[in-house]
Specification:
D-Maltodextrin-Binding Protein, domain 2, about 270 residues, 9 helices, 3 domains
Protein backbone atom coordinates (compact mmCIF):
# COMPACT_ATOMS: atom_id res chain seq x y z
CA UNK A 1 0.00 0.00 0.00
CA UNK A 2 1.42 3.34 -1.05
CA UNK A 3 0.87 6.15 1.47
CA UNK A 4 3.05 8.88 -0.05
CA UNK A 5 3.43 10.26 -3.54
CA UNK A 6 6.73 11.96 -4.33
CA UNK A 7 7.44 14.39 -7.18
CA UNK A 8 10.59 16.28 -7.97
CA UNK A 9 9.39 19.19 -5.86
CA UNK A 10 7.15 17.83 -3.08
CA UNK A 11 5.76 14.87 -1.14
CA UNK A 12 2.03 14.45 -0.52
CA UNK A 13 -0.32 11.82 0.89
CA UNK A 14 -2.06 9.42 -1.39
CA UNK A 15 -5.74 8.64 -0.92
CA UNK A 16 -4.74 5.66 1.23
CA UNK A 17 -2.37 7.92 3.19
CA UNK A 18 -5.19 10.36 3.90
CA UNK A 19 -7.27 7.46 5.22
CA UNK A 20 -4.41 6.24 7.46
CA UNK A 21 -3.53 9.72 8.87
CA UNK A 22 -6.18 9.84 11.68
CA UNK A 23 -5.15 6.32 12.79
CA UNK A 24 -1.50 7.41 12.87
CA UNK A 25 -2.44 10.36 15.10
CA UNK A 26 -4.30 8.02 17.50
CA UNK A 27 -1.35 5.61 17.61
CA UNK A 28 1.06 8.45 18.34
CA UNK A 29 -1.20 9.78 21.10
CA UNK A 30 -1.44 6.29 22.57
CA UNK A 31 2.33 5.89 22.69
CA UNK A 32 2.76 9.31 24.29
CA UNK A 33 0.13 8.45 26.90
CA UNK A 34 1.82 5.11 27.61
CA UNK A 35 5.24 6.71 28.09
CA UNK A 36 3.67 9.40 30.30
CA UNK A 37 1.98 6.79 32.49
CA UNK A 38 5.18 4.78 32.83
CA UNK A 39 7.00 7.97 33.80
CA UNK A 40 4.37 8.59 36.48
CA UNK A 41 4.83 5.06 37.80
CA UNK A 42 8.59 5.57 37.95
CA UNK A 43 7.98 8.76 39.94
CA UNK A 44 5.56 6.86 42.27
CA UNK A 45 2.61 8.95 41.10
CA UNK A 46 0.52 5.94 40.12
CA UNK A 47 0.45 2.27 40.98
CA UNK A 48 -0.82 0.12 43.83
CA UNK A 49 0.52 -0.88 47.24
CA UNK A 50 -1.27 -3.62 49.20
CA UNK A 51 -0.43 -4.55 52.78
CA UNK A 52 -1.82 -7.20 55.13
CA UNK A 53 -1.32 -6.61 58.85
CA UNK A 54 -2.57 -7.85 62.19
CA UNK A 55 -5.63 -5.79 63.23
CA UNK A 56 -3.80 -4.19 66.18
CA UNK A 57 -1.02 -3.04 63.84
CA UNK A 58 -3.40 -1.88 61.11
CA UNK A 59 -5.22 0.26 63.68
CA UNK A 60 -2.22 1.51 65.66
CA UNK A 61 0.80 1.49 63.36
CA UNK A 62 -0.46 2.15 59.84
CA UNK A 63 -2.80 5.19 60.00
CA UNK A 64 0.02 7.76 60.34
CA UNK A 65 1.97 6.02 57.59
CA UNK A 66 -1.02 5.98 55.24
CA UNK A 67 -1.78 9.65 55.90
CA UNK A 68 1.80 10.77 55.24
CA UNK A 69 2.18 8.58 52.16
CA UNK A 70 -1.08 9.83 50.65
CA UNK A 71 0.11 13.45 50.84
CA UNK A 72 3.12 12.74 48.62
CA UNK A 73 1.49 10.06 46.44
CA UNK A 74 -2.21 10.94 46.15
CA UNK A 75 -2.81 8.83 43.04
CA UNK A 76 -1.28 5.61 44.34
CA UNK A 77 -4.01 3.15 45.30
CA UNK A 78 -3.50 1.77 48.81
CA UNK A 79 -5.06 -1.47 50.04
CA UNK A 80 -4.84 -2.27 53.78
CA UNK A 81 -6.08 -5.71 54.89
CA UNK A 82 -6.48 -6.04 58.68
CA UNK A 83 -6.54 -9.80 59.19
CA UNK A 84 -5.29 -12.47 61.59
CA UNK A 85 -1.83 -14.00 61.26
CA UNK A 86 -2.78 -17.03 59.16
CA UNK A 87 -4.53 -14.78 56.66
CA UNK A 88 -1.56 -12.41 56.54
CA UNK A 89 0.66 -15.35 55.59
CA UNK A 90 -1.83 -16.67 53.02
CA UNK A 91 -2.23 -13.27 51.34
CA UNK A 92 1.53 -12.78 51.08
CA UNK A 93 2.03 -16.31 49.76
CA UNK A 94 -0.68 -15.91 47.09
CA UNK A 95 0.49 -12.48 45.98
CA UNK A 96 -2.73 -10.72 47.01
CA UNK A 97 -0.61 -8.21 48.91
CA UNK A 98 2.89 -6.85 48.39
CA UNK A 99 3.96 -7.55 51.96
CA UNK A 100 2.57 -8.38 55.38
CA UNK A 101 3.29 -7.33 58.95
CA UNK A 102 2.96 -10.07 61.55
CA UNK A 103 4.89 -12.54 63.67
CA UNK A 104 7.34 -14.88 61.96
CA UNK A 105 5.54 -17.76 60.24
CA UNK A 106 6.60 -21.36 60.64
CA UNK A 107 7.22 -23.80 57.78
CA UNK A 108 6.92 -21.18 55.04
CA UNK A 109 10.04 -21.60 52.88
CA UNK A 110 8.73 -19.23 50.19
CA UNK A 111 8.21 -16.34 52.61
CA UNK A 112 11.02 -14.16 53.97
CA UNK A 113 10.76 -12.58 57.42
CA UNK A 114 12.58 -9.37 58.34
CA UNK A 115 12.27 -8.21 61.99
CA UNK A 116 10.73 -4.76 62.31
CA UNK A 117 9.72 -4.19 65.93
CA UNK A 118 9.68 -5.93 69.31
CA UNK A 119 7.20 -5.27 72.11
CA UNK A 120 6.32 -6.59 75.56
CA UNK A 121 3.06 -7.82 77.05
CA UNK A 122 1.64 -5.38 79.60
CA UNK A 123 -1.29 -5.43 82.01
CA UNK A 124 -4.38 -3.40 81.10
CA UNK A 125 -6.19 -2.01 84.17
CA UNK A 126 -8.68 0.57 85.27
CA UNK A 127 -6.89 3.50 86.87
CA UNK A 128 -8.78 2.89 90.13
CA UNK A 129 -7.92 -0.82 90.25
CA UNK A 130 -5.77 -1.81 93.27
CA UNK A 131 -3.07 -3.22 90.96
CA UNK A 132 -2.78 0.17 89.24
CA UNK A 133 -1.16 1.49 92.44
CA UNK A 134 1.82 -0.80 91.75
CA UNK A 135 4.70 0.00 89.39
CA UNK A 136 4.66 -3.58 88.11
CA UNK A 137 2.39 -6.60 88.46
CA UNK A 138 2.98 -10.33 88.17
CA UNK A 139 1.22 -12.95 86.08
CA UNK A 140 0.01 -14.58 89.27
CA UNK A 141 -1.62 -11.33 90.40
CA UNK A 142 -3.35 -10.90 87.04
CA UNK A 143 -4.49 -14.50 87.06
CA UNK A 144 -6.10 -13.96 90.45
CA UNK A 145 -8.37 -11.32 88.84
CA UNK A 146 -11.05 -11.80 86.22
CA UNK A 147 -8.73 -12.21 83.27
CA UNK A 148 -9.95 -11.16 79.83
CA UNK A 149 -7.90 -12.49 76.92
CA UNK A 150 -8.03 -12.69 73.14
CA UNK A 151 -9.26 -15.96 71.64
CA UNK A 152 -6.83 -18.79 70.94
CA UNK A 153 -6.86 -18.15 67.18
CA UNK A 154 -4.91 -14.90 67.67
CA UNK A 155 -1.11 -14.57 67.80
CA UNK A 156 -1.53 -12.36 70.89
CA UNK A 157 -3.25 -15.14 72.79
CA UNK A 158 -0.62 -17.69 71.81
CA UNK A 159 2.07 -15.41 73.23
CA UNK A 160 0.08 -14.89 76.44
CA UNK A 161 -0.41 -18.64 76.84
CA UNK A 162 3.34 -19.21 76.56
CA UNK A 163 4.04 -16.51 79.14
CA UNK A 164 1.64 -18.05 81.65
CA UNK A 165 3.07 -21.48 80.97
CA UNK A 166 6.60 -20.18 81.56
CA UNK A 167 5.40 -18.67 84.83
CA UNK A 168 3.97 -22.13 85.70
CA UNK A 169 0.52 -20.68 86.16
CA UNK A 170 -2.74 -22.43 85.30
CA UNK A 171 -4.90 -19.86 83.57
CA UNK A 172 -8.18 -18.80 85.12
CA UNK A 173 -9.79 -17.00 82.18
CA UNK A 174 -13.02 -15.14 82.82
CA UNK A 175 -13.75 -14.25 79.19
CA UNK A 176 -12.30 -14.63 75.69
CA UNK A 177 -13.01 -12.11 72.92
CA UNK A 178 -11.92 -11.49 69.33
CA UNK A 179 -11.52 -7.72 69.27
CA UNK A 180 -9.27 -5.30 71.15
CA UNK A 181 -12.06 -2.76 71.46
CA UNK A 182 -14.13 -5.32 73.35
CA UNK A 183 -11.32 -5.89 75.85
CA UNK A 184 -10.96 -2.15 76.30
CA UNK A 185 -14.68 -1.74 76.98
CA UNK A 186 -14.83 -4.65 79.42
CA UNK A 187 -11.85 -3.42 81.44
CA UNK A 188 -13.26 0.11 81.48
CA UNK A 189 -16.59 -1.24 82.74
CA UNK A 190 -14.78 -2.88 85.65
CA UNK A 191 -15.44 -6.46 84.59
CA UNK A 192 -11.80 -7.53 84.83
CA UNK A 193 -8.20 -7.01 83.72
CA UNK A 194 -6.25 -8.00 80.63
CA UNK A 195 -2.77 -8.52 79.20
CA UNK A 196 -1.88 -7.27 75.72
CA UNK A 197 1.20 -6.35 73.67
CA UNK A 198 2.41 -2.76 74.01
CA UNK A 199 1.77 -2.07 70.32
CA UNK A 200 -1.94 -2.41 71.15
CA UNK A 201 -1.87 0.42 73.69
CA UNK A 202 -2.77 3.28 71.29
CA UNK A 203 -5.87 1.31 70.29
CA UNK A 204 -6.87 0.06 73.75
CA UNK A 205 -6.08 2.78 76.27
CA UNK A 206 -8.96 5.08 77.22
CA UNK A 207 -9.09 7.96 79.73
CA UNK A 208 -10.11 5.61 82.57
CA UNK A 209 -7.51 2.94 81.70
CA UNK A 210 -3.79 2.52 82.32
CA UNK A 211 -1.10 -0.10 81.86
CA UNK A 212 1.59 -1.70 84.01
CA UNK A 213 4.64 -3.79 83.15
CA UNK A 214 4.41 -7.48 83.96
CA UNK A 215 7.23 -9.31 85.74
CA UNK A 216 7.90 -12.97 86.40
CA UNK A 217 8.63 -13.60 83.53
CA UNK A 218 8.48 -10.84 80.91
CA UNK A 219 6.89 -11.79 77.60
CA UNK A 220 8.19 -10.25 74.38
CA UNK A 221 7.24 -10.82 70.76
CA UNK A 222 8.90 -9.93 67.48
CA UNK A 223 6.95 -8.60 64.53
CA UNK A 224 8.30 -8.13 61.06
CA UNK A 225 7.82 -7.83 57.34
CA UNK A 226 6.66 -10.85 55.37
CA UNK A 227 7.56 -10.87 51.68
CA UNK A 228 7.71 -13.47 48.92
CA UNK A 229 11.21 -14.72 48.24
CA UNK A 230 12.73 -14.06 44.83
CA UNK A 231 10.28 -11.25 44.13
CA UNK A 232 10.98 -7.54 44.34
CA UNK A 233 8.45 -5.08 45.68
CA UNK A 234 6.76 -2.73 43.23
CA UNK A 235 7.95 0.88 43.26
CA UNK A 236 4.76 1.96 45.03
CA UNK A 237 5.02 -0.76 47.70
CA UNK A 238 8.72 -0.07 48.29
CA UNK A 239 7.97 3.63 48.69
CA UNK A 240 5.18 2.87 51.18
CA UNK A 241 7.52 0.63 53.14
CA UNK A 242 10.16 3.37 53.24
CA UNK A 243 7.52 5.73 54.66
CA UNK A 244 6.66 3.13 57.30
CA UNK A 245 10.31 2.93 58.40
CA UNK A 246 10.51 6.72 58.63
CA UNK A 247 7.25 7.23 60.49
CA UNK A 248 6.65 4.55 63.10
CA UNK A 249 9.69 5.01 65.38
CA UNK A 250 8.80 8.66 66.00
CA UNK A 251 5.04 8.48 65.76
CA UNK A 252 2.34 7.35 68.14
CA UNK A 253 4.61 4.74 69.76
CA UNK A 254 7.26 7.23 70.92
CA UNK A 255 5.59 7.37 74.34
CA UNK A 256 6.22 3.65 74.87
CA UNK A 257 9.92 3.42 74.05
CA UNK A 258 10.64 1.32 77.13
CA UNK A 259 8.18 -1.30 75.93
CA UNK A 260 8.67 -1.12 72.17
CA UNK A 261 11.98 -1.48 70.34
CA UNK A 262 12.36 -0.85 66.61
CA UNK A 263 14.92 -2.50 64.37
CA UNK A 264 17.21 -0.32 62.29
CA UNK A 265 15.63 0.12 58.89
CA UNK A 266 17.19 -1.42 55.80
CA UNK A 267 16.11 -1.90 52.23
CA UNK A 268 13.69 -4.86 52.11
CA UNK A 269 12.54 -4.20 48.57
CA UNK A 270 14.25 -7.39 47.44
CA UNK A 271 13.75 -10.65 49.33
CA UNK A 272 16.23 -12.96 47.64
Amino acid sequence: MKLFQRTSRTVFLTSEGQTFLPLAHRLLHGWRSTFSQMSDVAAIQHGRAAVAALPSLAAGMLPDVVARFAVDHPLVRLVICDVLHNNVVAMVRSGQVDFGISVEPTSEPDIAFQPLVHDKIVAILRKDHPLAKRRTVTWAELNAEKLILMTQTTSVRQLTDRALENAQITMQIALEVDQLATISGLVQAGFGVSALPALCLPVVIRPDLTWRSITGPEAERSLGLLTRRQQDLSLAAASFLAELHRTIPNGIFAAYRGLIRFENSSNPASSR
